[in-house]
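Marked as duplicate of an earlier ticket. Keeping the data here for the record.
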Amino acid sequence: MAEQQSPVDIPPGASVRRDGLELRYGSIPLLLGREPTAVHVDNTGAMAAVIEGQPFGLAQVHMHCPGEHTFGGTRTPMELHLVHQSHEGQVAVIGVTFVEGRANPGLDAIIAALDRDDAPSTLDLRTLVPADHAHVAYDGSLTTPPFTEGVAWRVLIRPNTLSAAQLAALQAVHEGNARPVQPMGARTFLPGAGREARAS
């Protein structure tokens, strides 16, 4: 019986970590793939993150509308997942939530690519991630079939922003592709090695 499924609700008071996550993002070729309810950006797997001292290559970037993880029961309009894999095959996902505000240049590049598949372009991953990398950490699963467990989740606490026009463009492709929140069960959010904050 599956007991470590994702996404989950992140309640007030959950341990917030500021250690164990180093993002080494830059620009990658914008290779857009399409599925019935999503678009995704595939990557060659060059190292892009160090999690608990272990290097992970970026495999894919994709989005969910609305967001999948909730914070105290509150869901955001969109959530972006940066899917990584280590040389040993372990999967780690960085989750970034988005709220309406200033337009995001990285999302602009993705939206533009929806209408011009043959145009070469790049995606600066740094624009997709807020400067504050404080996060919650827990063990979970993929949120799409086959919902494989053993995934190391790092969900950033601070949201990024997107404009109303960007949200509408992404909802046209992704609306309703969010998995419902799953029970946390006996799991706990992993504590950090250094001084911690708490989710508010």
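See parent ticket for discussion. Confidence is low (pLDDT under 50) at residues 194-198.
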